[in-house]
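Hi F.,

I've been meaning to write this up properly since the lab meeting, where we talked about keeping a consistent format for the predictions we share between groups. The idea is simple: the sequence comes first, exactly as it goes in, then the structure tokens exactly as they come out, then a line or two of notes. No screenshots and no reformatting. I'm using this chain as the first example so we have something concrete to point to.
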Amino acid sequence: MTLFSCLYTIGLYILGIVTVPKMLWSNYRYGKYSLSFSKKWGRDFKTLDKGQKKCLWVHAVSVGEIKAIASLANQLIDQNDYFVVVTTCTETGWRQAQLSIPKAHHLFLPYDFPYIIRPIVKRLKPDLVLLSETDFWYHFQNACKKVGAKIVLVNGKISERSYKRYKILKLLLKPLLNDVDKFLVQNEEYAKRFIDIGVPENKIVVTGNIKLEAIYPKVSDLDPLRHKFCIQPDDLVVTIASTHPTEEELFIPVMKQVWKEQPQVRFILVPRHPERCPQIKRLLDGNHIEYSLWNTSINEKKPLILIESMGQLLTAYQLSTLAIVAGSFCEGIGGHNVLEPIYYGVPTLFGPQMWGQKDFAHLAISYKSGLSVPIESMASTLILLLKKGPDYQTLTNGGKSLFSQNQGAVSKSLNYIKSLKI
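Output, unedited:
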């Protein structure tokens, strides 16, 4: 066992000692990790048998990474007779994988202890492993290389925060990065960062951002939903997407201020984690805000619609006049994908905390398809844009340009993967 492997494994055991009791308590108290905790010990892999097929293993940590890699993975699957495994680390990511990459076995990546992961990899013998964005697991990667797999990082990126940490740990990280055969990265800045932390330049290819080529589903008939919630085609609807704890509290006075000026405006609230809905309901009730539930069958007109389940956000965007992408108004999250509503032609607002989605924020602003708005100015900005004047039209037109002028990343990535001759 190398020094890195020893230190890494010790670190995993320490992390496990610290986090497992907390996870068990969260499961008991709030029902969290009820789906994933037991499965991360690898028991679901016992039922898999790839037979004589080559095995494609796609790993993406959570929702955003799954969405990023889905288009590329689906094209690979359609062009090859692979036995396909898709793993994630989160329950929301697992659900998203079922929606986005349907022709696969959907599982949780087992905990990266060698005694768990090595027997699984040795039995499945993956031929090609795709990692989405930046999610490295030493024992998993090392075991894959030992059975002859090619490992490709797709849509690679390193955030500024991670880059600073990686530079400090540069020498220790070398074994973690050595097992990756190709780094397909989003832009030149990320390429330079990978080189700075020790990745050989000849392993790196700039392919562009494949999220800009995602094909998002479109609802062919929105009328049943409009009828259900008494929404007219010309009504003003604002979706507040992917909210985290404390953000709902920030938006309550915003909504009330908008309703004072434009009482006909409807809001759709979509928490990032649906299991938080009970506490959000209590917050809404405490502030005397009437709301409908997305999954109810009662036709009624309420000023707010609360979505309690996964997989409905993209539909909500298609009902919207404006979208606000949260996770950017609180510390520690770094924002979410602002390109999704823009794809549907919906002008998009987001907060100042977009360090985790810096590229998307820059694209949205530079193409005039989105705006960074502090929470203090959110109500006045909404009131102005909901009048659908020149500023609103500029944002609508900017979204069309953003997507039409940024294509080609998926085909470039496919070509480099094919060149590996799996």
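Notes:
The mean pLDDT is 91.
The chain has two domains: 40-209+408-418, 223-404.

If this format works for you, I'll send the rest the same way.

G.
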